Amino acid sequence: VLALVIAPSQIVTASFVASVSVPFFLSALSRGPCLVRDLRQRLRLSSVLAIAFWIGMVLSGDELWRFDAKAAGDLLAGALIILSCILTTLIILLLVAAGVSTTLLVSLSTNPGPVEIEPWLADYGHGFGVRDLFRDRLNLLLGTHAAVLRESTVVIVRGARIPIALLEAAMLYFDFSKPTGR
Amino acid sequence: MSLLVGLLSFAALVIVVPVVVRLGQRRNAIGIIMAAAMAVHLAGTIAGAVFLAELDYWQNASLYWFATVILIYAYGTCYRSLSVLMLLAVYRTASRTMEVETLYDVHFRGFIRDRIDALLEGGRAEFRDGRFVITPAGRSGAALILRARRVFALKESRLYFNTTNRIEPG
């Protein structure tokens, strides 16, 4: 016999409602009087608003005030549900906003006909091309302080060996250890 | 105890993932990882409900899926992060250094070619008479992305740094 409790508690239900509110807050902050221009800040604020919304719902309910093991477990579960939703939103947003394949696909769809590779890549973002993308991602890499630029050479920083070894282990784990790029 | 069932299920998934990614033919294994995650979740939930006096489904599921989303984020970073690929390309040289131009010409262009290959492989674009052309599947995918960009006003966010983006995107 399966001893399974499927009916969600108030706290868990509140976390679902708050999770759904993340894209709504994000959309509301993307336009009009509440516009937040910086994308990172917009996501951060949407997340804070959703969490505040959830906390408000939990505090106004009666489950939390029982202070039992079930309430504590549900509180942790609810927090994990919201965090999962925020992380999923972040993944999708980054993919849609800055994904290379997505931008290549959009650029191909806005071109009236077939394109040749070189002119396409040189201006695939209609205003920026692969060289700009390279500079952008190189800046992102340098921003992590794992590598520095000396004159025109990229040099790995000595202190980055351990994080890079972990990265290599992750690449092996996911079967990406064979070097790509030719 | 329900949270522990979620944690143990995730531990099982961590063991299963490296096996299933090596079974798939396609380079992008997100689909197969998701299928494995659902199967492990189902098996873990049934096992928990059989062995425990009472299994709270949502406590079990929340921990499991939270950890799984992080695993998928890590997979995505290894799979598609150009910065990570560049870092490893430099790290794999004997001197741990690389000229910027070599990094661009030899490696970065290769990473971009991989992305284009993925579009071709996924049936979103075709290579005809030396030119690239979008397929109907690619067109509907692009329309979906454009709609999402409009809803979330993402027009100017295609690069991470505006400073490097000297020409303003349209």
Protein described:
The complex is a heterodimer of chains A (182) and B (170). Chain A is mostly helical. Chain A is built from seven helices and three strands, in the order E-H-H-H-H-H-H-E-E-H. In chain A, helix 1 (10-28) runs parallel beside helix 3. Chain B is mainly alpha-helical and 170 residues long. Helix content of chain B is 68%, strand content 8%. Chain B has helices at residues 2-23, 30-51, 57-80, 82-91, 100-121, 136-151, and strands at residues 55-56, 97-99, 125-128, 131-134. A two-stranded antiparallel ribbon of chain B has the order 3-4. The model of chain B is unreliable at 163-170 (pLDDT under 50). The interface between A and B is large, with 89 and 102 residues.
Total helical elements of chain A: 7
Mean of pLDDT of chain B: 87
Helix content of chain A: 55-70%
Q: Numbering strands along the chain, what is their spatial order in the largest sheet of chain B?
A: 3-4
| Secondary-structure-derived class of chain A | mainly alpha
Q: Largest interface, with Cβ-Cβ < 8 Å?
A: A-B, 89 and 102 residues
Using the CA coordinates, give the radius of gyration of chain B.
Answer: 21 Å
Distance between the termini of chain B: 54 Å
Q: Please summarize the sheet with the most strands of chain B.
A: 2 strands, antiparallel
User: How far apart lie the N and C ends of chain A?
Assistant: 57 Å
